Fold each of these.
Amino acid sequence: MKNKKIGIMGGTFDPIHTGHLVVANEVLNFYGLEEIIFIPAGDPPHKKGTMAGSFDRYIMTEMAVLSNHKFKVSDIEIKKEGKSYTLNTLTELTEKYPDAEFYFITGTDAVIELPSWREPQEVLKLCRFVAVSRPGISMDEAAVKISEINKMYNSSIELFQAPMLKISSTDIRQRFKTGKSAKYLLPESVEQYIIKNNLYGSNDLR
Ligand code: NAP
């Protein structure tokens, strides 16, 4: 009998922003989760590279969740050599927390790519999958794609309508690069960390 509900917030977090934090809080409330573990992806299998290194993304994630005792951060993916696969991460977490039911939370655009992940069928057996709506993809469009995936794997991925904060890591990186303010889109501590460490070409903002 699984008696602990744990959310797993998977993403690159390059950088983490207020949109991620709001989504996590909404999912926590809606499903009555005990806690959410943010897991910054180390070396995402499907990407050529991230803009900030895994250590910086991990530190920024730690800073962002500091004030919420229900939000934790795991370095399980960033400390691994080589590619990080969700299957391996969930298998490890299942061993570590045998009593937990996991809710894997990520953006719909990542979920739509699920068929290209390593052993999606097995991944879906290890957790409840929550696809969070993102600005730019309509709920109808996302619902159609997710229902196709559910048919393909006989799964029950759930589509979660989060408050549509139009915040994206891509836009935030672009702002730092072009010297525009990203204030209030991300925690102030994370903003300061980015500027202090010249991440995303933020030199002009000092
Ligand atoms: P990503 O690039 O970080 O994000 C994809 C989209 O989802 C972006 O629009 C992003 O917005 C949004 N997003 C990211 N994390 C979110 C979250 N937790 N809640 C709501 N929206 C979120 O994501 P990714 O790197 O493709 O991967 C997401 C997760 O899937 C990671 O845990 C990754 O390890 C896993 N994954 C596994 C495999 C595999 O095992 N083979 C393959 C692909 C992905 P922002 O840009 O604003 O963050």
Note: The mean pLDDT is 92.
Amino acid sequence: MKNIDSYTHVRGESIYLDDIPVVQGTLYAAVFDSPIAHGRIKAIDLSVAGSIKGVERIFTSSDIPGENQIGGIVPDEELFATTHVHFCGMPIVMVVAESEEIARLAVSKIKVDIEPLPIITDPREAWEKGELIIPPRTFKLGDTTSAWEKCDHVFEGRTETNGQEHLYIETQGAYALPLENGTIRIYSSTQGPTAVQRTAARVLGIPMHRLEVDTTRLGGGFGGKEDQATTWGIMCALATWHLKRPVKYSLHRMEDMRMTGKRHPYSADFKIGLSKDLKILAYEVTFYQNAGAAADLSPAVMERTLFHCTSSYFIPHVLATAYSCRTHLPPNTAFRGFGGPQGMFVIEAAIAKTANALGVPASDIQQQNLLRTGDEFPYGQKAESEANECWNKAIELYDLSRLRKEIDEHNSVNKQYKKGLALMPICFGISFTKTMMNQARSLVHVYTDGSVGVSTGAVEMGQGVNTKMLQVAASIFSIDPALVRINSTNTYRIANTSPSAASATADLNGRATEIACQEILKRLKKVAAEEFSAGEDEIEIKDNWVFAKSEKTTWEWKRLVFETYFRRISLSELAHYTPPGIHYDLKKEKGHPFAYHVYGTAIITVTIDCLRGTYDFDSVKVVHDFGNSMNEVIDIGQCEGGIVQGIGWMTIEEIVYDKEGRLRSNALSTYKVPDIYSVPKEITIHFLDTKKPNLAIFGSKAVGEPPLLYGIGAYFALRNAIKAFNPTVDIAYDAPMTPEKVLMNLYSKSNR
Ligand code: LUZ
Ligand code: MOS
């Protein structure tokens, strides 16, 4: 089934926040944000801004009726700075005016006098100064201390991974409307409507039931709107609360890039020990997460880094510690993979370093250590592994030895162009790591004409979740998909939602929809059973028609629905779903946090231009564990997008903050994401043939985040290509590998 949004997307008719028709009297907001990263506010001069015609009102922290607090996990983040600013881009003042132009003009006339204070941008420096967001956490399996002496090879090293700008095509934004009796509707481009509702209620000092948050769809989220969409929703609601007027704020790209957090950069130290036959016996790793100026989701991101620190390998002795370090950058936040990719990069670097030193291909070490079913993760869960299945299928299907031979031959005769190859096995845990968040509800209404309306907590952000929800309802009822509509995500219809995140949205909301539809179906069948003198289990609905004892009856779906209504039986159901069997003990750092894992293997090849340092990815060949995919077109789309986004993070996307904590890569002219010219020439995705039972919706495993991890292989393919040109170069494990870095490494003589 095609993505149900495709028709309106290609016609430009899909409604995003900025497409909502504005109502009469709408005002527009714009923010004055801190030009310096750390300081004490001495004076705010609003006189010129306030005198501009068309400026309705200017808001500061003193206009907040409730709490000036938007921190979700830790209450450490003000909506508007009061006495101090903690990052460049921190909101201080909001102007509300008759037009966007006037609002931004007024912002440009605001003067804030700030006394500068010392700035930290480096997580290790923050760590040295004891600037931690939360106490450190340590995952432990076996005993590394005594394991080192059993190792034949031990290597140590350091790695760096940089951040990543979400670059959702639709920037952040919100639109608030005053309703009667002090209630407010907020249209928000958010992955978490409940987060907007809960935090706005706190800031406004009103109960949550007075705030309706409604989301039709997002033009991309990637994690950037899991927590950080709330800011703009609350700002609009605050102005609406005061002025009783509709207020809209749709950020310009540069405002968005400057004021919002990104993927967390990490610095890490590792130590790895192996036996003679390349079994990894021990692994120690310390992560320094650059959290930025406030907690935001950093503690949860940090925990996922620990959960994925051994990637898809079994290591019997592991000691992993993570520090969430407070710096003066905008608070970093969720980004597809949520700390997992950062953890997995380090173990791949450790393996690459080992392979390099021992003169063996990294893939020999990778293959030796792939997880098997029954192997224990450092957090206590036992693997149900498809790692070897994916790996073996990939090297056979794509003929790894031939690929290697072709590359060796190419490299032996070509001077200017060198090729490199890397394999990247992945393993990603599916569930929110906070067990409590793994719950969802679905509200299904069957109308008397047989049409169906479904509301869930799932937010459509281009990932196709609405199509999957529609498939669930249509297939349980066995009716024409055109009869089913997926409604906007709305906190009045579905309450207390978890954000659409953690790759778990289709599973959680899909299972809830499945339960709701099954419940209604039971009632419908009871009515048919009475009518056709059959048992309820002898009734079947097939392709819009009622069958009794395998015989087609005179009743169509629509008739059955109406007859059920006629008998005063409910055609609506609100269902609740929680995945069974997941738990976690934070004191012991052990448990069974994930409903299941997703596996896969990619083979990535690249060609570098050794004169220029530029490169092209020739191919990404994947065997991916989709379980039993319920929509192959959507799932392939998620894989392709994830791979390209992962490659972007590892290669050309380079976030640059200067020492003053100012974002230099602050526009699309200075921050480059992969475009049609830089995507791999070939992406092939093979569906691993496995029909093992799992907890996914219809057995169709979560696909949102896992494919991004394949991009890590791009970094290692590039290293191998550089080495083909300059065999003795000692390349730092420092991502992204930009063309500039490739060039420097190609001609670097110094062995570090
Ligand atoms: N968000 C969250 C996530 O709150 N918890 C998670 O475990 C998670 N994982 C991936 C992406 N977003
Ligand atoms: Mo996410 S990183 O699943 O919002």
Note: The pocket of pteridine-2,4(1H,3H)-dione (ligand 1) is lined by residues 226, 297, 300, 304, 334, 338, 432-434, 437, 501-502 (CB under 6 Å).
